[in-house]
Amino acid sequence: MTPYAASSAPSRRSFLASTAVATAAVAGGLPLLTACGGGQEGRKEGTTSGKAARKILPAYVASSVVAPDIPAKNGSSAGFTRAVSPDRLKTSVPDKLGSGGELTIMAPLWGTPPDNGNPYYKAMNEAIGVQTKWQNQDGNTYDEKLGAILASSDIPDVVVVPGWNLNGKIPNAVNAKFADLGPYLSGEKVKDYPNLAAVPTDAWQRCIFGGLLRAIPLPASYVTNIAPFYRKDVFDKHGWQPPRTTDEFLAWAKEATDAKGGVWACSDMKWTAFNAFGVLNGSDKALWWNLQDGKLVNRVETEEYLEALEWSRKLFAAGVVHPDDKAGKTTNPAGTRFTAGKLLVYNNDLSDWFGKTSEQRAQNPDFEMAAMDVFTHDGGDPLLWAVQPCNIFTFVSEKASEQKIKDFLAIANFCAAPYGTKERLLAEYGVEGTDFTLAKGVPTKTTKGVNEVLGAFDYTGKPAAYVAHPDFPEVTRGMVEWQQRMGAFTKKSSFYGLTITEPGRWSNLADDFEQLEDDVVRGRKKIGDVQQAVSEWKKQGGDDLRDWYRELLDTTGSAK
């Protein structure tokens, strides 16, 4: 069985999703300088912010249903360290908003799709008043299915689109194929859906595509989601302290590595290196641009980017990185080696803190992990860059009737219910006695719940970011307080919070850099190869793309 594992938003890293993208390019054009009117206009490029966005965005009305034990701070999630007993659960959706109609929903799934008639789906359908029919697709190849569906005329009523799949032709298809939700949600209209009204404005801003509010967001903390995890139990045993600088980390790693004994200090630390050196970061490439000293700069042009790669290369060269990372093996992931004691530090999504702890405590009561505060190259305060406050979107087909749109919003409002409500418990855990049981008030999924309560209603609405693991309150507190500390050093780059559709002729321009980075840190390529790639990137369109982004920024402004 799987214990309580609530959190407010899935992420790319926690799903281990494929990064493959649709590659066909389309002709480019001028930036979208202001919001569109009321028409459904496709193939729009650019973004919408400032006054134009304020006319579109839903009003914000904070939820007061349940107060968190740890309030959100510095961009962090809120934290709930205690379970709410069933007799104290609140009701946030007193009346069914659905019409009883049917909706077909396509979503990614990492696992085996459950039967559409399973008890969880039936209970959700009954509670909301909508009959859902799920078309779950393999998350690892979802971009391929998504591209094919959007290129056809046979689009499901509702489609989930992860932000990492917004590449190639897909952004323009989104602008052309999905409905405007503004008439139902903009301004005060959102108050018909109180749980959606409590979704932060930053997350809604990301849902403006082609000048129209087209999606429901899955809100997330904007603090970096990549944490350097360490085996705190092993560190305590040896008297080691988390390092404060990159040099201290390398020195510790050399001391801690025992290749003959089968123990290495760390996995590939590239993601943490970007944070340690203050590199513009995030899976959304718009966040790789920032206005610095009056010039728009891309991260690949910065000294910090090269320094981060060079430090990561030093770790491999020193022999402190587990050999499976150098070989690129995926059959023995870093997290598995970490829990087995074969490596002592790895970086991954912050949600892994709970996942690994709950997995290990039953078999190894002494197991303890924690997240290091991001160390730096000079021992000073880190410079961290905000990630997007939403990276998964759910759309309604432009062919959907008004009633189908309202039925979808009924689902979204139900699923956006906050922690401590009957709706949230049902959405997260399913049917008591079938999908979960209660032990001292803490819900624990049964095997059936693990297999069926996933990959569906997860995507159709979420409340503001929160963490709730009452079975491991120390992990909840650790996760939220880490976000709060790191949030104090987090800045928002020029295009934070915006969804930008680049001209198609440049949309795949930077696709090869990730592979080049991996080759450099493993010693297969040199820093000079990166510098050469940057020079070619500029000539092949990087400088033109810079001009395009600068015009966009000068005309529409940022969303910070």
UniProtKB/TrEMBL annotation:
It is found in: Cell envelope. Coiled coil: none annotated. It holds the Pfam family SBP_bac_8. InterPro entries: Bact_solute-bd_prot1, SBP, TAT_signal. Belongs to the bacterial solute-binding protein 1 family. PANTHER family: ARABINOSE-BINDING PROTEIN-RELATED (PTHR43649), SN-GLYCEROL-3-PHOSPHATE-BINDING PERIPLASMIC PROTEIN UGPB (PTHR43649:SF31). This is Lipoprotein. It comes from Streptomyces rubradiris (Streptomyces achromogenes subsp. rubradiris). The lineage of its organism: Bacteria, Bacillati, Actinomycetota, Actinomycetes, Kitasatosporales.
